[in-house]
Amino acid sequence: MLTFIGLGLYDERSITVEGRDALRAADRAFAEFYTSRLVGADVDDLEAAHGTTIEVRDRAGVEQDPDPILEAAAAGDAVFLTAGDTMVSTTHTDLRLRAEERGIDTRVIHGVTAQSAASSLTGLQNYRFGKAVTLPFPYAHGGDGVPDSVIETIEANRERGLHTVVYLDIKVGIGPRGPDPDHEEYMTADHAAAMLADDWADVLGVVVARAGSPDAVVAADRLSALADRDFGDPLHLLVIPGDLHHVEVDALAGLADAPADLLPDR
C-alpha cells in the first residue's frame, strides 16, 4: 500500500488526524519538500512528533528513481508526505500511477491547500477563481521579467472577471548555475509584485504570507505599493482579484486593509 498524505500548511500539527494515524502506522515514510514546505517545522520536528523516521527524496529521487518508494509500498505500508495537499503536483500523480501499474494499492489523505487557505483568509469566494499560475524566477525560465504565459493567463482571468492565484517560485537544490544541493530560495510577495507591476502598477493585488501559521499576513494594495513592503518569512503567494462581489469588497477592506479607491462602490 502507498498512502499519499498532505501535511497541511504550517507545522507538524497541521496534518489531519487520519493522516497522522496513517503516518504513525506505516512501515516506511518518504517525503519531498521541493514543491513546497512547512513553514513551522522541519523533518526533525515531524519525526519527533510522530515517532517515525522520514526519508526525504529530492526531485530526481521521486521523478527519475521512484523504485525505493514503490518497492517499500509493494513490501508493506509506505507513506509519501508533502506539504499542503498531496495531489496538487503532477509529480505525485505520476508516482501514484506508477504504483497502480505495478498492482500496488494507493490511497490519498488530503491536507489543506494554499489556494483554499488564500480564499479563506482573503474572503474571496473560491468559485470565482480562474486558472492559477506560477511566477518563476527569471533565471528559471531563461528569460527576463514575467513569462508571456503568466501575463496571458492573468489577463484572460481578468477579462472573465475571475481571480488569479499566483504561486511564487521555490527553488530547492537548484540555483542560477544549475544543480546545487545547498541552494534554497523562495520568491517573496514584494519581489513578485514588483515584477507584475511592470504591466499592472495600479492593479489591486492581495498578498497572503505564511497561510496556516499563527502570524499569517493578508494585505491588499496596488501592486506597485506591495512591491515596497516587507511581508516577512516565506511562504508567500499573491492574488490578482477579478470582479468583486459586495461581500468580497467588504472582506478586502476589513481583512486586508484594501484602499477604498481601489474597491468598487457597493
UniProtKB/TrEMBL annotation:
Pathway: Protein modification; peptidyl-diphthamide biosynthesis
Domain (Tetrapyrrole methylase) ranges: 1-226
Record EC number: 2.1.1.98
Reaction(s) catalysed by this chain's protein: 2-[(3S)-amino-3-carboxypropyl]-L-histidyl-[translation elongation factor 2] + 3 S-adenosyl-L-methionine = diphthine-[translation elongation factor 2] + 3 S-adenosyl-L-homocysteine + 3 H(+)
Superkingdom classification of source: Archaea
InterPro entries, A to Z: 4pyrrol_Mease, 4pyrrol_Methylase_sf, 4pyrrole_Mease_sub1, 4pyrrole_Mease_sub2, Dphthn_synthase
Assigned keywords, A-Z: Methyltransferase, S-adenosyl-L-methionine, Transferase
Annotated S-adenosyl-L-methionine binding sites: 9, 85, 88, 113-114, 168, 211, 236
Molecular function in Gene Ontology: diphthine synthase activity
Single Gene Ontology BP annotation: protein histidyl modification to diphthamide
UniProt record similarity statement: Belongs to the diphthine synthase family.
Purpose of the protein: S-adenosyl-L-methionine-dependent methyltransferase that catalyzes the trimethylation of the amino group of the modified target histidine residue in translation elongation factor 2 (EF-2), to form an intermediate called diphthine. The three successive methylation reactions represent the second step of diphthamide biosynthesis.
HAMAP family xrefs: Diphthine_synth
Subunit-structure text: Homodimer.
Protein name: Diphthine synthase
Protein source organism: Halopenitus malekzadehii
Taxonomic placement: Archaea, Methanobacteriati, Methanobacteriota, Stenosarchaea group, Halobacteria
Gene: dphB
